[in-house]
UniProtKB/TrEMBL annotation:
Its main location: membrane. InterPro entries: 7tm6_olfct_rcpt. Keywords: Cell membrane, Membrane, Olfaction, Receptor, Sensory transduction, Transducer, Transmembrane, Transmembrane helix. The lineage of its organism: Eukaryota, Metazoa, Ecdysozoa, Arthropoda, Hexapoda. Pfam families: 7tm_6 (PF02949). This is Odorant receptor. It comes from Atta cephalotes.
């Protein structure tokens, strides 16, 4: 469970890093045709890249923490009702 969520977090971090590198580069010094292509890439980079599991759960370390917290809460309730 942790490995899947860690992979999703790495994908998110890579997408953000790609946007920052393309934006902070010397794109304005490139030829006009290349500038137009880089603008499309930067525009796509504003959308977060995420890994969705089963169309329900976004895989990230934050999701792993909430999933673990919820599981512990459920097990605590089940244990207290015994």
């Amino acid at each position: 469970m942790f490995i899947l969520n860690y992979g999703g977090q790495e994908l998110m971090n890579h997408g953000l890093h790609f946007f920052k590198v393309s934006y902070n580069g010397l794109w304005y010094a490139a030829p006009l045709h290349t500038q137009k292509l880089l603008l499309f890439i930067m525009q796509r980079g504003t959308i977060n890249t995420v890994l969705v599991c089963g169309r329900i759960f976004v895989a990230s370390l934050e999701g792993f923490a909430s999933l673990t917290s919820t599981a512990v809460s459920y097990f605590t309730v089940i244990y207290s009702t015994r």
